Sequence to fold (246 residues):
Amino acid sequence: MTLAGKKVLVTGGGTGVGAELARSFARQGAQVIVAGRRAEPLERLVAEQQGLRAVRADVTDEASVREMFDAAGPCDVVIANAGASDSAPFPRVDLDHWNAMLAVNLTGTFLTFREGLSRMQGWGRLIAVASTAGLKGYRYVAPYAAAKHGVVGLVRSLALEVARRDVTVNALCPGFLDTEMTERSVANIMEKTGADRDKALAALTAGNPQGRLVRPDEVSAAALWLCGAGSEAINGQAIAISGGEI
Fold:
């Protein structure tokens, strides 16, 4: 497939699955804008992969999102990937923790989609990187799961609004990914339980029937499929990329 002539924006694009999405779309000929709050990882990524341009942005800030699209220009594909996760037993979840999880994971997706859609010309794809936490519950991450459930609801509702246009809206819901974020989760389990790394990792992969972490390139392959020929009727879906875990 080729995406030559298409412009793609990826939020949270400096590291992890966002960086892999940016690389994959650039390899298919797209002009890719990677957005994030930290300059260093964005600059490293742009230096190693042709076809990328970096924009500093905070998706939780309405003005910053507007400025991000001012810098990027109208985009054909908007991937709301920026997100964060933190864990705590529910009785210890304070309002700051709750608000932080909703701000980056849900409000950030809303602001990114709203601004991106308002500037979209003709054919377009809106893709949210959600999580299996948007399809089921997990212990100790109630705010994160609530935010990701909200992303899935947003996707399903917006998909109906744009259904008569040449635009689709979908969510990708990976399980635990082989990324820096999961490494932080492993370290957190080790610190709190005293488990070694193998046992901490096994606790995260136990829910995947394939018994492994999901590779970032598996997420980017699904995103590319949503932008390819024959994907026109895939709209309003929450696609699990999880080895069979729902």
The CA atoms of residues 101 and 127 lie 19 Å apart. The chain has a mean pLDDT of 94. The two ends are 30 Å apart (CA to CA). The chain has two domains: 7-175+215-232, 177-213.
